[in-house]
């Protein structure tokens, strides 16, 4: 009898203890997110719909990682959506490229901002004829739930290099903000090559060396038919976009600096998007094991990008690198001139 009572008491103590620890952990998590819950002051925004108050309600921020996350998983009822005044908005800014420039890192880091909601998947609406034919409602339905004051951002790096895309985006919204993240062109090309190589290896296929693809064996000149080279001729692609959008509608992000020192780059983007500065050093920490900055949402939640980001690149023959440098040099100069952003690319 006594033994039974003791067991019951122990069981009760265990339940109480678990409850206490659970509550404590919950409190710690909430306190950790407090610094992200300051009411956001005025967004002097060309982006904010006219007539709506310029403040993001506090609850918006509280729900950012709670309810919105649930909704993304499809767990919310229509009633919740209606009650919280949630909407699926077309993007007011798009990361149009460049592939392997750091597009995922940029999107994830911008998503740290309480007024930004990311479309998690690459939607490929404007570059894929079949998707485009499905119409704007299909595109909107691919967007995450958000509050009317938040801005939705999507990224599909194929947009930058696909012929039809500038006109199609222009038709949707001629004043949309366009983000392009670039890296030193040869590094980007090698990164591109490395991704394709990994795909081939996964399928047990062989693949050429980078040098063989980048240099035309007949002419010994740079092979401009090789996609990884063509994509890195940033100015060629940008010129097509400039037929539709003024240069002020683009913001160029330095992808090399986003790797080594992300905050200043993110602050420039905040300014470009007319958002108050909310991403801080607290949200970014260097993870020595990954060799990259990772994201901290609060004291409990943090994450690094997937292992497919940050691959080891193969060594490239210095003679080929030298040839590529000479090749890219004039295009790079033109790119600096057009965008007004200079990089120390060799
Ligand atoms: P590498 O794999 O060549 O290193 P994208 O998302 O456009 O495909 O770009 C991938 C690149 O993002 C990676 O190229 C990596 O260098 C870069 N990157 C930038 N910031 C990163 C971060 N915080 N974590 C991981 N990769 C990051």
UniProtKB/TrEMBL annotation:
* Disulphides: 294-304
Location(s) in or outside the cell: Golgi apparatus membrane
Query: What does the record give as the organism's lineage?
Result: Eukaryota, Metazoa, Chordata, Craniata, Vertebrata
Record: active site: 100 (for sulfotransferase activity)
Might you give the EC number(s) for this enzyme?
2.8.2.-
The name of this protein is Sulfotransferase
What residue intervals traverse the membrane? Answer: 12-29
* Alphabetic keyword roster: Disulfide bond, Glycoprotein, Golgi apparatus, Membrane, Signal-anchor, Transferase, Transmembrane, Transmembrane helix
- Residues reported in the UniProt entry to bind 3'-phosphoadenylyl sulfate: 100-104, 183, 191, 293, 309-313
Family, per entry: Belongs to the sulfotransferase 1 family.
Pfam families, alphabetized: Sulfotransfer_1 (PF00685)
Q: Which gene encodes it?
A: HS3ST5
EC top class, in one word?
A: transferase
Q: Which reaction does it catalyse?
A: alpha-D-glucosaminyl-[heparan sulfate](n) + 3'-phosphoadenylyl sulfate = 3-sulfo-alpha-D-glucosaminyl-[heparan sulfate](n) + adenosine 3',5'-bisphosphate + H(+)
Q: Which SUPFAM superfamilies match?
A: P-loop containing nucleoside triphosphate hydrolases (SSF52540)
Tell me the GO molecular function terms.
[heparan sulfate]-glucosamine 3-sulfotransferase activity
The organism's superkingdom is given as Eukaryota
Residue intervals of the Sulfotransferase domain? 91-335
Q: How does it sit in the membrane?
A: Single-pass type II membrane protein
Q: One GO term of the cellular component aspect? A: Golgi membrane
């Amino acid at each position: 009898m006594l033994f039974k009572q003791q067991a019951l008491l122990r069981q009760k103590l265990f339940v109480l203890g678990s409850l206490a620890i659970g509550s404590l952990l919950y409190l710690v998590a909430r306190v950790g997110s407090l610094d992200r819950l300051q009411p956001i002051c005025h967004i002097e925004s060309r982006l904010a719909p006219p007539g709506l108050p310029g403040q993001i309600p506090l609850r918006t921020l509280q729900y950012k990682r709670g309810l919105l996350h649930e909704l993304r998983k499809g767990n919310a009822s229509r009633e919740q959506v209606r009650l919280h005044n949630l909407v699926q908005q077309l993007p007011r800014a798009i990361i149009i490229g460049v592939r392997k420039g750091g597009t995922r890192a940029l999107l994830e880091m911008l998503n740290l901002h309480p007024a930004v909601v990311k479309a998690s998947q690459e939607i490929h609406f404007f570059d894929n004829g079949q998707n485009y034919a499905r119409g704007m409602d299909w595109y909107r339905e691919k967007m995450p739930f958000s509050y009317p004051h938040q801005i939705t951002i999507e990224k599909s790096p194929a947009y930058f290099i696909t012929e039809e895309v500038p006109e199609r985006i222009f038709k949707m919204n001629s004043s949309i903000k366009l983000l392009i993240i670039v890296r030193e062109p040869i590094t980007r090309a090698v990164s591109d090559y490395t991704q394709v190589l990994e795909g081939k290896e996964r399928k047990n296929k062989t693949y050429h060396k980078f040098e063989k693809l980048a240099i035309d064996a007949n002419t010994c000149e740079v092979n401009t038919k090789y996609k990884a080279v063509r994509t890195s001729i940033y100015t060629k692609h940008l010129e097509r976009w400039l037929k539709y959008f003024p240069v002020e509608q683009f913001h160029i992000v330095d992808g090399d600096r986003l790797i080594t020192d992300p905050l200043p780059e993110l602050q420039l983007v905040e300014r470009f998007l007319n958002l108050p500065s909310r991403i801080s050093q607290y949200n970014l920490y260097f993870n020595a094991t990954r060799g990259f900055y990772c994201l901290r949402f609060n004291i409990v939640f943090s994450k690094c990008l997937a292992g497919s980001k940050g691959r080891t690149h193969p060594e490239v023959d210095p003679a080929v690198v030298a040839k590529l440098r000479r090749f890219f040099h004039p295009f790079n100069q033109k790119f600096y001139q057009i965008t007004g952003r200079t990089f120390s690319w060799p």
